[in-house]
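Our working data are protein records whose layout never changes between entries. Instead of coordinates, the fold is spelled out as a row of discrete tokens. Here is such a record, shown just as it appears in the course material:
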Amino acid sequence: MTNQVNYNKPESPSPKERDLGRGKSLLFINGIPPKNLPETEGYSLIACSDGAFHYLKEKNFPIEKLDFISGDFDSHSGIDEDVYHEKFIYTPDQNKTDFEKSLEIIKERGFKKIDVYGGSGGEMDHFLGNLTVAFLFKDDLEITFFDEYSRYFFAPKKLVLNNVKNKLISLYPFPTVGKITTNGLNWSLNKENLDITSRIGTRNFAKNDEVIIEFDSGNLVVFLGNVDLP
């Protein structure tokens, strides 16, 4: 039976779920900082990379809410962080990015759903690298990136989006998607193939409140715009 995922329903884990290491986690990494920091209520674990730690301080994020700060600390420069030394996890492996190492820690702690801020913007090789890392973890973790323009994620074989009428929706094969069918998009697909080298599905939009996307094979990144199109 194909899993259905609804990315529009927020979760508020109970204390029991936190104790068991389940619920949603929030991770900040060192891309373009969000203009407005997200609400932390409803997250069972909150973490950041060492580079993101600096912009969180500048934005007056309550550092005491962080469960850990991970990285090789090549971005770590101030002694005032000594106050929070017990939250630092030193991960010096130069063959992995700070994002990848943070995901490994979160996974080890039993979490599956992760919202990521700071994954895009700035140097585009960082963005592509972060997307590739998310691909490596897609079978074990449900990772959703958030930026100023959209949220984006690797989609399951059947995806249901609610309350999305007039939202920009882009479908990006990574690198191919086989026999994709959509219902509720302005330009629909019916058992068609997408390929990064020949045909992609960007800049579509939802004509209905509910959009259903199904595909048989491959990997699909879905970008869901933050604002309604005029």
Remarks:
- The helical segments are 15-19, 50-58, 98-108, 124-137.
- The first strand starts at residue 4 and ends at 6.
- Residues 175 and 196 are 5 Å apart (CA to CA).
- Residues 124-137 form the longest helix (14 residues).
